[in-house]
Design brief:
Layout lengths: L8 E4 L8 E4 L2 E3 L12 E6 L2 E6 L3 E5 L4 E8 L5 E7 L3 E3 L13 E6 L3 E8 L5 E9 L2 E12 L6 E4 L16 E7 L18 H6 L7 E8 L1 H16 L5 E5 L21 H9 L8 E5 L35 H18 L5 E3 L7 H4 L39 H24 L5 E4 L11 H8 L8 E5 L37 E2 L5 E2 L1 H12 L2 H14 L10 E6 L12 H17 L4 E4 L7 H10 L3 E3 L16 E8 L2 E8 L5 E4 L9 E10 L13 H4 L3 E7 L5 E4 L4 E9 L26
Parallel strand pairs: 4-7, 6-13, 14-25, 17-18, 18-19, 19-20, 20-21, 21-24, 24-25
Antiparallel strand pairs: 1-2, 1-11, 2-3, 4-5, 7-11, 8-10, 8-12, 9-11, 12-13, 15-16, 22-23, 26-27, 27-28, 28-33, 29-32, 30-31, 30-33
């Protein structure tokens, strides 16, 4: 069920005791007084000549996610003034944002009922974008265009929504309106009508004719006006319904044009598509930051032909071609050059770079140990990767070799060097981008031998590195389905039902064993929690004589296998929404730099509610509230605490057996509450465990409701499993100074105790 998120339409009007007004659709209602004072930002005059503009800032800086206030003053004020705003989706004025992307109509956001006031601003967007404020009274109207300039707080969490329903783009990113032109020796085989017969412009054509990489590979990108129009008119609006700060974009060494071949290897890069994405799309069409992935890999034939690149390929490197290999000086230099080029070309808009997708798995590093079986031909992309003799000696099981010392002995230095080079090149170019380094972890496995070795080599001496993690929080195989065996098939997809949040109701397994749903959901929370990894990092820091190691350790999940996504007929929106909210809160509280969900509900609202509350937050740890950094008890009521400027946020859910109350005793110290909002997300359960017989609309139903309060409630009743709450409190005592003694020995109004600070 699509529910428009209209929280409070708040217009704070305050100076020397003037009453604060909360407006809903332009109708003021009584509220408490504010003692906030300020320097005016927008100054209007309502004199004999009518309403006129005196002064206004041309730009307003906003930290992504943080709530800010824009002062408004009216000289000669004598009558109420209606305030409307025209903004892009995911930019909020007094907690109002358009329902859909595109050119939104002006929305009423409040009534100026006093000479001085404030407009509440918040943006989830990453790029500078316009905001138009209109002040109107009678026949007078003043429209003010302002540019909002978002700033991303480093290491505060960002989010992405990949595999968006109804959209063909990979990982949710926008496609590039370019078709590859293959050459120089491709036989004529036009696949798409209208293509020149002397070249091939379609990968399918190349595959159909089984053309060799060494004679037929991308040499040019041909712009398609039709594809451009389709992306802008159809794809971009679908993508922008989801508030994403980051989406994964594959950009390996394919971007290097392979001809003419020269010893200097200074051929131009084929970056037409990335240039279009970074430079030509305005924020109305692309507001996320592309996470450039696979920079270690040379796809598409570049440096993949020994006979044409003798200066690159040599036996000493084990035959490595077109893939970073620390034993090959020429490849290493080209790798450096490529990252340097990306950093300087895209400047501050390049915010995230990922070395490779899951490089720790042996099917990249030991290319012919193919995971699909001994009879499967070794012709995959990674068949061009580095090959070492130690691959023959690795223990069976391609998923976990990085747990072994034998694997770490060979590949820890490989992965460390590739990440260290990239991190250094980003810094040398003056880039603030975060490097996501290959060092795959599983949440419950602790810090693996390979990753520990990378850290010991000095990986985190770079202050711009996060470690990749891919989390799998759902039970596997699930014990509530019988129709499929849960093993990966072609394309790395699991059968229906195999990657699904547990039921929200108790159930009986096909074998007749009763299962309490709360136990399964507690297991999901514990699977996503990375306490084991964090504990290992603390121990490693002590061993290395670096007690601050944990403060420099950050994880980034670029392929999160859980939360929000309706992947097949066996799940519903309620289950996925509750799972996604929990996953987001747990990971954000444990210091993750980013989360990229790989599937999403057709209704974007549950995901957007999470992003609105969690992007840009700083975690707060209060063990007496069961909100520590590590070691949370997930068997009952769960709280995660965050702060964001003057705003305090609590995420609340429960795995208890019955409804429980979260009590919120207020501090005895006087507190002025600027805004208090309680948002409830309710995931209704489908009538059957496997949700069969429901329409897509019924499966995607999620109920969302918000209420604005004058102060935090004395208690919040939380129903197990199906309910999730966000409580947002803005006051003059941030850092949870408005909370009273919870019964445990601690000092009120403590400074925030956070990781790394």
């Amino acid at each position: 069920m699509h529910i428009r998120l209209v929280f409070a339409l708040v217009l704070v009007l305050a100076l020397f005791g003037v009453t604060l007004v909360v407006a809903s659709a332009g109708s003021p209602v009584p509220a408490v007084a504010s003692q906030h004072t300020f320097t005016p930002g927008i100054v209007l005059s309502d004199g004999p000549g009518g309403l006129t503009l005196v002064s206004v800032p041309a730009t307003i800086p906003l930290t992504v996610g943080h709530v800010a206030y824009l002062p408004v003053q009216v000289q000669g004020y004598h009558r109420p003034i209606t305030v409307t705003a025209q903004a892009l989706i995911h930019t909020y004025v007094n907690d109002v944002t358009p329902d859909e992307p595109g050119d939104a109509p002006a929305l009423v956001v409040g009534t100026l009922a006093a000479p001085q006031g404030e407009l509440q601003l918040q943006t989830l967007r990453m790029r500078l974008h316009p905001l138009t404020l209109t002040f109107g009274v009678g026949g007078d109207e003043v429209s003010i265009p302002i540019t909002l300039t978002p700033d991303l707080q480093r290491w505060a969490p960002v989010f992405g929504a990949g595999f968006i329903p109804g959209y063909a783009g990979w990982w949710g990113t926008l496609r590039e309106p370019y078709v590859p032109v293959w050459g120089p020796d491709c036989p004529p085989c036009p696949w798409t009508p209208g293509d020149p017969i002397s070249t091939t412009r379609d990968t399918r054509c190349v595959k159909m004719n089984q053309l060799s990489e060494c004679c037929c590979r991308p040499i040019q990108k041909a712009y398609s006006e039709t594809l451009d129009a389709s992306i802008r008119s159809q794809d971009a609006p679908i993508v922008q319904q989801y508030a994403s700060q980051v989406l994964r974009h594959q950009i390996g060494w394919t971007a290097l044009q392979p001809f003419p071949v020269t010893q200097a290897l200074t051929e131009p890069y084929l970056l037409d598509g990335l240039d279009w994405l970074f430079f030509q799309l305005p924020s109305q069409e692309r507001d996320y930051s592309p996470l450039l992935n696979d920079v270690m890999e040379g796809k598409g034939g570049w440096m993949a032909c020994p006979e044409e690149y003798p200066m690159i390929v040599n036996q000493g490197s084990g035959g490595s071609i077109g893939f970073y290999d620390e034993r090959n000086a020429a490849l290493v230099e080209q790798y450096r050059r490529y990252i340097r080029q990306l950093a300087t070309r895209y400047g501050p808009e390049l915010r995230f770079l990922e070395t490779m997708n899951e490089p720790c798995y042996s099917f990249y590093l030991c290319p012919c140990r193919d995971p699909l079986g001994p009879g499967y031909p070794c012709t995959r992309t990674w068949a061009r990767g580095p090959d070492h003799q130690v691959c023959d000696d690795l223990p069976p099981g391609y998923l976990q070799p990085h747990q072994t010392a034998a694997f770490a002995d060979v590949y820890a230095e490989f992965l460390y060097a590739s990440a260290d080079i990239a991190a250094q090149e980003l810094q040398a170019a003056g880039s603030d981008a975060i490097l996501v380094a290959g060092g795959l972890e599983l949440s419950g496995a602790g810090l693996t031998t390979t990753t520990a070795r990378m850290i010991e080599l000095g990986l985190l001496d770079n202050d711009n590195v996060a470690l990749m993690i891919h989390q799998f929080p759902y039970p596997s195989p699930p014990d509530w389905i019988t129709h499929e065996e849960c093993v990966y098939g072609p394309g790395w997809y699991l059968p229906p039902g195999c990657e699904t949040a547990p039921p929200l109701q108790d159930y009986t397994t096909p074998a007749g064993r009763p299962v309490a749903a709360r136990v399964k959901w507690q297991g999901v929370d514990e699977a996503i929690d990375v306490s084991e990894i964090l504990s290992d990092v603390v121990a490693l820091g002590q061993q290395m004589g670096q007690p601050d190691l944990l403060g420099r350790f950050h994880l980034f999940d670029t392929e999160l296998h859980g939360g929000f996504g309706i992947k097949d007929e066996t799940t519903n929106g309620g289950r996925t929404a509750i799972a996604g909210l929990r996953i987001g809160a747990i990971n954000a509280h444990q210091g993750f730099a980013g989360l990229l969900f790989i599937g999403n509900n057709p209704d974007p609202q549950p995901y957007n509610v999470m992003v609105k509350h969690l992007v840009g937050v700083t975690p707060v740890y209060r063990p007496e509230w069961n909100a520590p950094l590590a070691g949370t008890d997930y068997s009952g009521l769960v709280c995660k605490l965050f702060t964001r400027g003057d705003e305090d946020i609590i995420a609340i859910w429960s795995n208890a057996t019955t409804t429980g109350n979260l009590k919120l005793p207020l501090s005895g110290a006087p507190t002025q509450f600027k805004q208090v909002t309680l948002t409830r997300v309710y995931g209704p359960e489908c009538p059957t465990v496997d949700c069969q017989g429901l329409t897509p609309e019924e499966r995607s139903r999620v109920d969302i409701a918000s209420q604005v309060l004058s102060a935090p409630p004395a208690s919040i009743p939380v129903q197990p499993l199906q309910e999730f709450y966000f409580l947002s409190v803005s006051s003059d005592r941030p850092g949870f100074g408005w909370l009273g003694d919870l019964g445990a020995p601690h000092t009120l109004y403590l400074p925030l105790v956070v990781r790394g600070g």
